[in-house]
Amino acid sequence: MATSNQFGSATDAVGQAGAVDLLIGIAGPVDDSQLRTRASEALSGLIAAGGLRIGVAFPVASAAEAADAVAESLSGLQFFGYPLSPSATPSLPWLAAPPAYREIARLAGKTGARACLILGQDLAAVEEVESLARPIVEGQALLSVPSYPIGKYEGLLNSGILYPFFRALYGRQIRHPFAVDFGIAGSMISQLATDAHRGPSSSILCPAIDGAVSGVQITQTYSAIRHVHHDDVDLSTVLTALVGAIFEDAEKNAAFWQRMRGSQPTLVFGSPAAVNDGDGVDVRPLIESFNLGSRNLQEVWGLVLPPVTLLELKRLSRLPLEQFRMHDLVWAKIVYDFALAHRLRSIGRNHLLGALTPLYLGWVASYVAEVQAGDATEAEQRVERLAIAFEEAKPYFVSRWRWPDRFNP
User: Fold this and answer.
1) pTM of the model
2) Model confidence pLDDT, tens digit, residues 334-353
3) Spatial separation of the C-alpha atoms in residues 50 and 114, rounded to whole Å
4) 86, 91, 125, 409: which sits with the fewest CB atoms below 10 Å from its CB?
């Protein structure tokens, strides 16, 4: 991967520009003119009301273009280009590459920003800048993350794995730990650049994990942000990237989370946005994928899962469609066992996470069958029960992590 050092640092582009109170970094390719128009419209009221000096940083192809990008849009609002190689692309199109984090962090330091917001490249969060920035600017938190509006059939990888796994390990009830958008205080900006350098090999960073491990105050804000869906990205690719990243962080932070017990609520601002319950989901192809995996992946699953879990999966594969239910503790232990196998490299990591995909689809089928008669509120309560099950199963994970051979045949 080419780095931005080929083009020079983003700080070279600041030149004669003045200091800012808040720097908003767009963490991926964006249309320059659209950004200027939307940012000027969305931020003019915030500048007028609060007197904030705001900078907006966006990627360009070279240091020369970055220098040309500095411009004054309106009083208190400046635009900065930061150099980012076209080859510096993340494994998933909606996430930022570490070089983008590094350049935004350097630019924030150069401008003396008291706070920095990282926003997704689809600009869906531009209108939510004030709500995300407020906890940081007012000194209520060092890290601010959104709580996205999701229907009962949306964001299920987050609901089924990322959120409950993060909550159980790190003790913070943060609904979207891998949020695309987040705010960070000036005192943590240098840490953002450092984390981007030493991030997991998957090149996906999770500031919520670093914030939890550092013990800083983190807040959530209910938002109306709805990011662009990428239906063209294969599920196994998404699962491998995101779950692989959180598993790698678990290995890096093992000394911390083994001492953590239970979880604490996180301060939440605002009110939940209304969501559409969405159309129904046909569980038949999901269960068929699970059953296909049960037939073809027994050898792989046998390297990862203890006999009692394998027996339960075999029982599930024989159930009629309408009776298919995967118990929360079974699912939690499956995720924990795969996290352990990821650490031990029992098999190749991509192969391992690919073998988790049909199991995840089995969980989705079970979840859909349970929530289809209720609304989004009831579905959220169902996710909370799953998160509690992950917490209850954590001693199992700690034991397996410390003594990985104890439960093996």
Assistant:
1) 0.90
2) 999 999 999 999 899 999 99
3) 14
4) 409
